[in-house]
Amino acid sequence: MGILVVGSVALDTIKTPFGQVEEALGGSATYFSVSASYFTDVRVVAVVGEDFPEKHVSMLKSKKVCLKGLERAPGKTFRWAGFYDYDLNTAHTLKTELNVFESFEPKLPEEYANSDIVFLANIDPVLQRRVLSQVKSPRLVAADTMNFWIENKRDELIETLKLVDILTINESEARELSGEPNLIKAARKVLSFGPKTLIIKRGEYGVLMFNDGNFFSAPAYPLEAVYDPTGAGDTFAGGFMGYISSIMDWADPNLRKALVMGSVMASYAVEDFSLGGIKALDYKEIEGRFKEFKKLSHFEDL
Amino acid sequence: MGILVVGSVALDTIKTPFGQVEEALGGSATYFSVSASYFTDVRVVAVVGEDFPEKHVSMLKSKKVCLKGLERAPGKTFRWAGFYDYDLNTAHTLKTELNVFESFEPKLPEEYANSDIVFLANIDPVLQRRVLSQVKSPRLVAADTMNFWIENKRDELIETLKLVDILTINESEARELSGEPNLIKAARKVLSFGPKTLIIKRGEYGVLMFNDGNFFSAPAYPLEAVYDPTGAGDTFAGGFMGYISSIMDWADPNLRKALVMGSVMASYAVEDFSLGGIKALDYKEIEGRFKEFKKLSHFEDL
Description:
Structural class of chain A: alpha/beta
Order of helices and strands of chain A: EEEHEHEEEEEHEHHEHHEEEHHH
Shape of chain A: globular
Number of strands of chain A: 14
Oligomer: homodimer
Helix content of chain A: 25-40%
CATH class of chain A: Alpha Beta
Low-confidence stretches of chain A: none
CATH architecture of chain A: 3-Layer(aba) Sandwich
């Protein structure tokens, strides 16, 4: 019933050519949860420190996100600082303070054990498995990862991938994980590690999906004002998995619609800093942008 | 009554990570003509030297390309030498020998003056206008250009753009011509120079079209083996313009189909060196790949 997500809840300090924020709400689990909350119930497994502002807890609760699995540990909340140049596809990290994340031992509340759908957001692949092992019989498991784990915990990551149905990574990560410059060959190699479905995120160039011999390419939404790409990938995953959870069917045509829904949500995320772009949407608005995606990629048969 | 194209006919020496060719047939007018020949009659305005191999003339004739406007001048044929690294989106020029192109004064055969559709391939914008002025009443004028003219003949290029209905350029050229990093803003600026339709080529990321307030995004065809991207843009333009010429209708839905047809042709071009990928296709094959494009970008309504 709904989705279980494990990932980070963070305080981000970010600068882009269009502005900056200090210690704003961020983190993969946060973006994912708020995005998925428009479609389904979300249960969060994460950790914050004693300094985590109560207003962020309230905001998440207002989106009906279940926070029973959000541990409040002694110490400081995870912090990330970074910047983007005009090439908004590349994040430059200035500082990462793991803080309470350093000794995080995810323990699921008992009632989370019956979760049907699990999203393992970008964290240590060992932790990803540790969370998954506490879920009794998940029907669908999706995961994200990043270059840091590919480079430093490759074997652990490969172990995790054996348990994953759907993997979402970005283009350079797909190349790095596979060792293949050609994206089609890279995809085939990554699929050989375990996942049945691979989703490759390409920022402003959209998203590719390789699923069971089928290939799908979704455009990105043309935006005049991209302020901050932080969290776009997690917001994408939230829309994608949230939509799947709402229909509980992952046949190829439904995965395609879900992938466009993820792209819709990501397009809102980048229009403002922090959660500003996605925390106050209504479903009609989201449906409207889905229709615009349809229009912008439609062409007739010959 | 078919298409008139002015552009280069060249001998290319190219190295990519996947092989190399020496003095192979190339040039914007060549790729354009062969690509468009599957859809319509093509008339070429270009110049070659005394050394231009007869076998290339025969090949073009076998595609029913009209060569009455192909001047054979004293001297050597235009030559280009370059290479590509694994990033096949970027051509590195090693040598450009203009040769007979240096003093090219395009003179149209009388019968070309009644051409309905004109494609001004990537040459000096002054020459583009000189050709256009010899066509009595063109119904549709499209053009391509490149960074060299944007940087060195900007004012002349802007003059040419006033006469152009459809401009096809690549992503970095759109940003350079407009001075805008954001592509949507860049498009709006370029359209203010004259064209009604702007097509932005993004290599392996597909093609965008801005047309009369409409926005269309076409994916690129997923290829496992890209051997040589030379000529992909001109081949795209040939398929695009060729299809339009075959139906003589440039309403938005038809421009979209034409743009996909251009992408189909470009996908064949990059699968081999020189004209190898496009000189021996049949129309059934082309239609088949068009259908695959449809499949790879299709998703249902909510």
